[in-house]
Amino acid sequence: MNTEQLLRSLSATGNLKGFRYAVHMIELAEQDPTAVTKVTKYLYPETARHFNVSPSVVERNLRTVIHICWSRGNREFFDEVAGTRLTYQPTNGMFLDMAAAFLRRREA
Question: Residue 94 is part of which domain span?
């Protein structure tokens, strides 16, 4: 399963502005697990530069993607990705970490 397939399995769709941002950031976090400790200092600015938008646009649109995954997605699969039962919508950093870790586990 690749990053795009993971997001689509969580009910995110490619027509969301934040979809491509999420793919980019999850792939960065998958390659460098420490990237999730630098969300505002590294992931948002790097993604903003890559897509020629502002870091605040990246942050807001990622939050929208997460909200859609949380509200419309398969909660059991969301919990599988998280590795635990979630009782609240994850923050942006938590979501990126969970998704990247899930993909790393799948590759191992």
Answer: 3-107
Domain count along the chain:
1
> What is this structure's pTM?
0.94
Cα-Cα-Cα-Cα torsion 25, 101, 82, 63, nearest 10 degrees, comes to: -10
* Phi, psi for 12 (deg, rounded to 5): -80, 145
CATH number, domain with residue 45: 1.10.10.10
Do you know the residue count of the chain?
A: 108
pLDDT tens-digit series, residues 83-100: 999 999 999 999 999 999
Write the pLDDT tens digit of every residue in 25-66: 999 999 999 999 999 999 999 999 999 999 999 999 999 999
CA distances from 8 to 3, 49, 56, 66 (A): 9, 24, 24, 12
